[in-house]
Design a protein that fits this description.
By secondary structure, the chain is an alpha+beta fold. It contains 8 helices and 25 strands. The chain has helices spanning 7-12, 17-27, 31-35, 93-98, 102-127, 231-234, 252-261, 275-287, and strands spanning 5-6, 37-40, 46-54, 74-81, 83-92, 132-139, 148-151, 162-167, 172-176, 187-188, 193-196, 203-207, 215-223, 240-241, 269-273, 296-299, 307-312, 315-319, 327-329, 332-342, 349-353, 365-368, 374-380, 386-399, 405-411. The longest helix has 26 residues, at 102-127.
Length: 413
């Protein structure tokens, strides 16, 4: 199994000053980015794993009764895809001299690029959503080409086209994702209905035109924004606590509910929320009897000294200001989400990185290693008196079990 370490842990063991500087720039941006463990997918651009779907049935029999055999464990195959994060920096030769030399200027440029990558990845972990361009071909169901279709996570159009089957008698629709051998269960059509493929981890939401005949709708789709599937898309509906019509202030009871929903135990559990909500939780804790030193935990975020992080029932509360505070909940347009997750490779939330390109022996790579981070010297810029450096990584996010991630929506505090 690949070694699974967070950026903070890898920073502790790095003897490469370039990589150490890159990691420190990235992990000081966001507390979740600092703590989430990463694992290698080798040279691949994705990770596929089996998600438990059903357990075998246990027989309870009397003496002499026959034992009914059952199938062994049933699984679905789930895939998470990685995306490129790349930032180039040009350093003017004359300006570099005035700034203390080219080496110093490159170090500063690499630091700026790394910080930008950290912010981008921190945002994508939460809100990442590939924007798919969908081409619809209608076979038999008149008007279906005007369909509005939203593609769910974990789907690869390289595996072929997808299909939606419409049956006019009963007005049902069913979905078959790229790579699946059959359609999922048919459901009664309604505007914006979510339909699942044979593998229920793949889904689409669909709005069709007025239909009058049976037909097959074939979909081809390509991503026009190269983002990963973030936590908002990985979250299972059954793992969501929905607020009242116009939203609710955070309560300790809501945090209790979230923790109860996250039953995975393959990693440390944490809450993740924006700073305003963490302040509100702090006020609740003080009102309930005072936030004592026992309700804080020292955690490392790569800045040298440990940071005291508040906890609730022993669970650290991590801050991520990449969680939007502009969600709409009824009359409120300033709602947000609060997450609870386990951070771990075996089942919880985990970062992914590819080692593609790290075996380059052409001398362009200045440094490589830390969870797939590469610093590349691109040499002289062709049309400018400048040198160019590139910081890049191939990163993704996986949530191996639905029970390792939960969220409360419509939080107004």
């Amino acid at each position: 199994m690949a070694t699974v370490l967070s950026l903070v842990e890898l920073l502790k063991g790095s003897s490469d000053p370039v990589l150490a500087g890159v990691a420190e720039s990235i992990i000081t941006v966001d507390q979740l980015v600092a703590q989430i463990p990463f694992r290698s997918v080798g040279l691949s651009d994705h990770l596929t794993w089996k998600r438990e779907k059903a357990l075998p049935v246990v027989s309870k029999i009397a003496s002499g009764d026959n034992i009914t055999s059952t199938n062994a464990l049933a699984y679905d195959r789930v895939t998470s895809y990685l995306r490129r994060l790349v930032c180039d920096q040009d350093i003017d030769n004359l300006d570099a001299g005035a700034a203390g030399g080219m080496l110093q200027a490159k170090a500063e440029a690499i630091g700026r690029a790394s910080k930008a990558m950290g912010r981008t990845f921190g945002d994508d972990i939460i809100t990442g959503a590939p924007a798919w361009t969908v081409t619809v071909n209608d076979y038999g169901a008149s008007g279906a080409t005007s369909a509005t279709i939203v593609i769910g996570p974990g789907q690869d159009p390289r595996l072929g086209n997808a299909q939606i089957r419409y049956v006019h008698s009963g007005t049902t629709v069913a979905y078959k994702a790229p790579g699946d051998s059959d359609f999922g269960a048919a459901v009664t059509y309604a505007t914006g209905v979510k339909i699942y493929s044979q593998n229920p981890n793949k889904w689409v939401t669909v709005t069709l035109a007025t239909l009058s005949a049976n037909g097959i709708v074939t979909l081809s789709f390509v991503a026009n924004s190269n983002e990963i599937d973030g936590m908002e898309r990985l979250l299972a509906a059954a793992q969501t606590i929905t607020a009242s019509t116009n939203g609710d202030a955070i309560t300790l009871a809501t945090l209790d509910q979230l923790a109860d929903l996250v039953t995975d135990s393959n990693g440390p559990k944490c809450y993740i929320m924006p700073s305003r909500t963490r302040r509100a939780v702090g006020a609740l804790l003080r009102a309930a009897g005072g936030a004592t030193m026992g309700e804080f935990k020292a955690m490392s975020f790569g800045t040298g000294a440990d940071v005291m992080v508040p906890t609730y029932n022993g669970i650290p509360i991590l801050r991520s200001d990449f969680i939007p505070i502009t969600d709409t909940q009824g009359s409120s347009s300033a709602a947000t989400k609060v997450y609870c997750a386990t951070l771990g490779d075996q089942a919880g939330l985990c970062g992914l990185y590819s080692e593609a390109g790290m075996d380059d022996v052409g001398g362009e790579i200045i440094a490589s290693g830390l969870n797939g981070i590469q610093v590349v010297n691109l040499g002289t810029v062709q049309n400018a008196d400048a040198k160019r450096v590139r910081v890049k990584a191939y990163w993704g996010v996986a949530s191996k079990t639905e029970k390792g991630l939960a969220a409360a929506t419509g939080i107004t505090s």
